[in-house]
Write a structure and sequence with these properties.
By secondary structure, the chain is of the alpha+beta class. α2 runs antiparallel to α3.
Amino acid sequence: MKFGPREIIFVVLLLAIPLASWWLSFRPMNQRNEEVLAEIEQRRAKLQQLNRTTGAMGDLEKEIQALEEAMDLFQSKLPNEKEIDKVLQEIWKLAESNELTTKSIRTTSNRRRKSLFPAGGHSEQPITIELEGDFKGFYAFLLALESQPRIMRISKMVVQKDKKAAEGHIAATFELSIFFEKSKEKT
């Protein structure tokens, strides 16, 4: 077999056809496939991030609902500003039921204390209470005060033995803060 220019051109053309089809068809298609796969991977990563964020939002919604329920519970324990006198009467009756003598109940200024609720419609009223009586009665009074449905806090307390009275007789002075909901007209 003779290899002349015609045969050489034929062999070159036979070799050029697959090479040209690879260069013009398969190579661009492979590049496009790689780009599509990279885009799919990128979207898959975004979808996973979105799923994590959505899951966290579901947890946040549950958390918000639990906090709203807790706020409702605490607000139900807050008397209105007008009902503070009823709370004071309850405290007075608790002292009497535990055989304590109430020497004084007086409200004190709340100006020196930074407000716990600067933006809310809630406030606190500090009250100074002086009691005398048996220590067991005073202890029972504190337990009964703690079980009250109202939100109260004792911030200062001085308990002294009464030297003139019998053993176990005390004089107690304490500051009780009653938390309440402000009237709507003042807010």
